[in-house]
Amino acid sequence: MIPPRVFKLERYFAKYEFCTKHLLCCSDCETMTIKDVLGLTDNCDELTRSLLDIPLGYTETTGDLSLRKNISRLYTNIDAESIVVTTGAVEPLLLFSITCLEPNDVVIIQSPIYQALEEGPMIRDCRILHWDMVDNEANKCWSFDIKDLEKLFEQNKVKALILNAPHNPTGFNPTLTNFNRIIDLCRRQGTILFCDEVYKFLDHDDHAEHLPNAADAYENAISMNVMTKSFGLAGLRIGWIASQNKQLLDKIASGKDYTTICNSAPSEFISKVALDKHKVILNKNREIIRKNLEAADQFFLKHKETFEWRKPTAGPVGLVKFKKGSVAEFCDRVVKEAGILLLPSGMYDAEHLESFRLGFGRSNFIEVLNVFDDYLTSINY
Asked: Which residues does the UniProt record annotate as the domain Aminotransferase class I/classII large (predicted)?
């Protein structure tokens, strides 16, 4: 295997996240305390006692059965036996690459992409092909051209397609028609579809066509999700994969014996409670996003000479184009002079886009946006 590269995005956050006053690029939704989560229920006191009585021994490798049953309710064709609970999202990404891919396998990956989605196949010495994002100037949005993907499939025998929908950092989500075309391309070759769905359930238009989970729609797909992003519970470090393909699941579960072996018992318990009330949590986070996007629209209209707002369609992140030179230099200046953290596109190996990631899933977004507005006004940008 090839040694992994430095994880640029995570090193950037390690440098700034906990010492910068204002974060304007967060990728997760508003978080909650343990008290908040237990308080969503009618039996908070009983659950609190149960939490305090949890044994801190080993847990089942694939995850607590009752938690897996709760997770399965997010799907239509997936049962508890078709789920493996993991530590966050990076663990299953790496385990999938190590256990299910071979050197020289052809793997298609969207670009730009969260580095961990690409790093696993790179470590495994796979042949990586990029499906590049398109800047749709006419419609003022980011998108992916399905015809470009079709060409890649026509020219190659593809072992795996790694899809991120909704997409980080652009907030793009394919149409249901194109999602079905993606599955059709994979099915023709028996290609594994590894779908990162950590921003699932956060469509901005309640009346839009909702994409199914990949694992529900395709027998050779792996759906990955976490409590971190849409649910805002990153501190639990609980994620999972779901698939109808038991052979793939077994390989990944077996590989877990060499990583975390099992999950945190208290985290599994709290995740189970949160998923019992997942609709309440998701409705709250969608409302925060809705209000924040309205504020973002007004902000970027005011500063249209400086930025191009490519409005996302799902999730709590978007990619904003900077029109006045180097976005890396701009972000560096903003964090030093205003104490506001933005994430330049170079952290996605996409320096050429001259853009930065905006995160609008947290309740203090408008407050921080006003600070950013004041700063831009003060320097006459």
From this structure: 57-359
| pLDDT tens-digit series, residues 206-258 | 877 789 999 999 999 999 999 999 999 999 999 999 999 999 999 999 999 99
Q: Are 84 and 67 in contact (CB under 8 A)?
A: no
Distance from C-alpha of 145 to C-alpha of 377, rounded to nearest angstrom: 38
Q: State which amino acid sits at residue 302.
A: K
Q: How far apart are the first and last CA of the chain?
A: 47
Cβ atoms of residues 120 and 97 within 8 Å? yes
The pTM score is 0.96
Q: How far apart are CA 187 and CA 49, in angstroms?
A: 48
Close Cβ partners of 95 (under 8 Å, ≥ 6 residues apart): 86, 252, 255, 256, 259
pLDDT in tens, 296-315: 999 999 999 999 999 999 99
Specify whether the CB–CB gap between 280 and 306 falls below 8 A. Answer: no
Specify whether the CB–CB gap between 130 and 109 falls below 8 A: yes
The Cα–Cα gap between 263 and 178 comes to 36
